[in-house]
Specification:
The protein is of the alpha+beta class. 33% of the residues lie in helices and 20% in strands. The protein has a single domain, classed as Glutaredoxin (3-Layer(aba) Sandwich). The protein has helices spanning 18-29, 50-57, 81-87, 95-104; strands at residues 3-10, 38-43, 65-69, 76-78. The longest helix is centred in the N-terminal third of the chain and has 12 residues, at 18-29.
């Protein structure tokens, strides 16, 4: 059984990260919320928050990201929602959305 964990970020000023809000809206719009097993928070104000620990364990520096776990396999990390949608959730994706996600993947945005 596949387990999917979404890690979303709360910034140092207590606000949700812009990209996390966008991805959560897209998850709802795409009708896949029920496929996300857990949502955890990487709170920049608390380096011991579960999301911050997951980010450190998997060497992820931006949010949101997804941890996909399957029995007997190493965890896979997805930092681009459209790739998760296509590769794990088996949903068709719109090429424009994929390009937008890839452009948003610029490391300077939404660091944890």
């Amino acid at each position: 059984m596949t387990t999917i964990t979404l890690v979303k970020k709360i910034t140092a000023d207590g606000a949700p990260c812009r990209k996390c809000v966008d991805v959560l809206e897209r998850i709802e719009r795409d009708g896949v919320r029920d496929r996300i097993d857990r949502v955890v928070v990487a709170d920049e104000r608390d380096l011991e928050s579960e999301g911050m620990r997951l980010a450190a364990r998997h060497a992820v520096e931006r949010a949101p990201f997804f941890v996909v776990e399957r029995p007997g396999e190493a965890s896979r990390i997805y930092t681009v929602y459209m790739r998760l949608l296509r590769d794990v959730l088996q949903k068709t994706t719109d090429e424009r959305d994929e390009v937008a996600d890839l452009m948003d993947a610029v490391p300077e945005l939404d660091f944890i």
